[in-house]
Amino acid sequence: MIKNGQTQQFDKAAFKAAVEKHLTTTYAYTTESATPHAWYLAMARALAEISTGNLLATEQKLAKEKARSVNYLSLEFLIGRLTGNNLISLGLYENVASAMEELGQNLTDLLEEERDPALGNGGLGRLAACFMDSLAAQEYPAVGYGLHYEYGLFRQSFEQGRQVETPDGWRGVEGYPWEVVRPELTQTVSLYGYVESYLDEDGNNYRRWVPGMTVDGIAWDLPIVGYDNNSVYPLRLWECRSPAPFNLARFNDGDYVGAQYPALEAGNVTKVLYPNDNHDQGKALRLMQQYFHCACSIADILRRHHAAGNEIEDLAKLETIQLNDTHPTIAIPELMRVLIDEYKMGWEAAWAICSQTFAYTNHTLLPEALETWSEALIQQMLPRHMEIIFEINHRFLKEVEAAWPGNNDVKRKLSIIQEGPQRMVRMANLCVVSTYAVNGVAALHSELVKRDLFPEFNELYPGRLTNVTNGVTPRRWIKYCNPGLSELISEKVGSDWPVHLEKIAGLAEFADDEAFQQRFMAVKKQNKQRLADWVKTNMDIDLDTNAIFDIQIKRLHEYKRQHLNLLHILALYHRLLNDPTFDMHPRVFFFGAKAAPGYALAKDIIFAINKVAEKVNNDPRLGGKLKVVFVPDYRVSLAEILFPAADVSEQISTAGKEASGTGNMKFAMNGALTIGTMDGANVEMREEVGDDNIFIFGLLVDEVQKLKQEGYDPYRYYNADSMLRAAMDLLDSDEFTPGQPGLLSAIRQNLLEGGDPYLVLADFADYVKTHEKIDAAYRDQKTWAHKAILNTALMSKFSSDRSIRDYANNIWNLKPVKC
Ligand SMILES: *Cc1c(COP(=O)(O)O)cnc(C)c1O
């Protein structure tokens, strides 16, 4: 049944003709010589044509209506494959499957041909992708602005258990079929040089940036297709192209580019995504990426504003700019520069616009992730921006003086400039000072932002600091990735739940219905089989779907504590071999995680898990009770197989360290039970599902802080707990690295001598005990099914549609516009 405007025109014969035309004219294959990959490309191109038409129509309609829009600025958009998702949004899945069938092709197989556009690291980039999906589904006018990296996040493989990174050329040689280049939107971006003063004809004094070089910004649009509506919004990704030969000559002149020459010669600013998650590396090329992104995006926002016939004075009325973390902070001084230097606006008028246009999302409290840039670097690369930052700070410190007269401590603490041997610009402080709203991403996190990170800012600017709890799109994370569950849900609560997730609450009344429980668990079993098949095909490991599938998938980071999970596995291993009274339900522990290439301990943890897996999976003494599977190259398309197959979701960060998490939400929506700490959005998930339907353990935020203050001693736990000691000591043996003891010692060393900064040992005993409760609960399948159904039923709060409505109502003041 064709239901909406985007699909009304669907004409199967015309679509097939379009596919064949692309196959022959775009990709130069005959129907005889075409590979499955070529068929996929041709099909995706034919579909992309439909959405490109709607993209332009949406653009025109919104311009004509002078609709207020949000501009979502993010250095990362981890969108995942588009074809299957867009087919669902367009309502064309069945139609296209049948059309392709008639062309002798299987749609499911073709969808597997698409490479993931991995233009993000993890949660932050995936959030941006879910938000674009929710903006389009609810028709809140929006443009996403990001970077068109030539290489996305590295691809991960394992060699003898160690992570190996290879470049991710996500576009292939043919280019990505969903993207369309927009040459008319090209921008020129300046870098380096100096600032000078000059007088205009009327004798007014102005500042002017004389750049050392320029680069071009090319716009590529990806269509964000609204679910079951006519809106298509652009995800606009900027690609940096080499400077023109004229500039190259200047570029060769050391006066202009000085020490930056090698970085620039290496090429293209948008060559590769920095692979760090929750860690600030502070490389000059990264600053250049950030500025390039901001300069192109600000210029494009102003272009759109004027193209729609609007005056610059009305910018804040019609546009808002959301900064996804501090990565695009330099957009603030960039807009100030344009308004003052190019529009010749006074400081106050420019500031009034800027401070009413920008809003900022804080994603972390981890000190190593809070960005600072050396003043010297900014001075060299962006001299005019440095002047503007100084002026913002100068005026801000006057406000601080008025609020706390004579208090230099508070000035030092709040200043945008951090004093020291090398003066640094604190990007988060610049954001809080210059925006009209600052939000954390879960209730607990936002409280900690106010209480621990920015208490004085909260006093100085009452109401500015706020919360918007993260969410995930139910279109990709239930409907697309879990068709079996989706059918069950639709049968019970109707088919519009993907855009009205409140309706899944209707499932709760079937939580005790035995027939429904069985169907729910049968779907889970099928999804476990799909994962087991993937593991058999790709890793040649045999798995039993009667085992508990216990899954931890997320970036590898000490604060996320994959090593706590590992210690538990080692404890089980030890008990199975040494305690004849010990019994456990068979369990498969899955991991998926990439480590930043420079993060040695994270890579050691991957190695250790792989080595333990090798041994455990082949040890007949364990009777198949324990398996460990580390899936390589964790990415969105693998996540789509893993989340639906989980019985248990591992969300075990040290309390206060995970800002929100979104993997936790995807698991629970798909009927997994969480074992988790009182951290991030786990806290709100517990509120929704109730204490009986989630397994909470570990220290609370305040207990963590207290323990640290009192002087935490990991040896206290090590000495007192023989099971913990056994698990830890296995890491020092050659049990998993025969003949080579010590290969896994770095982890033990870090936990004992390194002070265990994330309190792994302190939470170990409670973690083990809570896993025993899970084991017992799983043995009662009816009770388990009851809990699993309630998890799915009670997750509606965590739809990113709700997050976006919160932003629209409480921050952006944005109204939907029907297209
Ligand atoms: C959801 C998701 C994440 C975020 O997971 P967390 O557990 O919240 O850290 C990271 N990577 C991918 C591919 C995801 O889909």
Automatic annotation (TrEMBL):
Cofactor field: pyridoxal 5'-phosphate
Magnesium among the record's keywords? no
Q: Which domain of life is it from?
A: Bacteria
Q: Which GO terms describe its cellular component?
A: cytoplasm
List the Pfam families hit by this protein, alphabetically. Answer: Phosphorylase (PF00343)
Q: Which reaction does it catalyse?
A: [(1->4)-alpha-D-glucosyl](n) + phosphate = [(1->4)-alpha-D-glucosyl](n-1) + alpha-D-glucose 1-phosphate
Record GO terms (molecular function)? glycogen phosphorylase activity; pyridoxal phosphate binding
Per UniProt, the enzyme's principal EC class comes to transferase
Which Gene3D superfamilies does this chain map to?
A: Glycogen Phosphorylase B
Q: Which keywords does this Swiss-Prot/TrEMBL entry list?
A: Carbohydrate metabolism, Glycosyltransferase, Pyridoxal phosphate, Transferase
Which GO annotations describe the biological process of this protein?
A: glycogen catabolic process
EC number of the protein:
2.4.1.1
Name positions with the PTM N6-(pyridoxal phosphate)lysine: K666
Q: Which InterPro entries match?
A: Glycg_phsphrylas (IPR011833), Glyco_trans_35 (IPR000811), Pyridoxal_P_attach_site (IPR035090)
List the CDD domains hit by this protein, alphabetically. GT35_Glycogen_Phosphorylase
Described by its record, this protein's role is as follows: Allosteric enzyme that catalyzes the rate-limiting step in glycogen catabolism, the phosphorolytic cleavage of glycogen to produce glucose-1-phosphate, and plays a central role in maintaining cellular and organismal glucose homeostasis.
Q: Which family does it belong to?
A: Belongs to the glycogen phosphorylase family.
Entry's PANTHER family? GLYCOGEN PHOSPHORYLASE, MALTODEXTRIN PHOSPHORYLASE
The protein, known as = Alpha-1,4 glucan phosphorylase
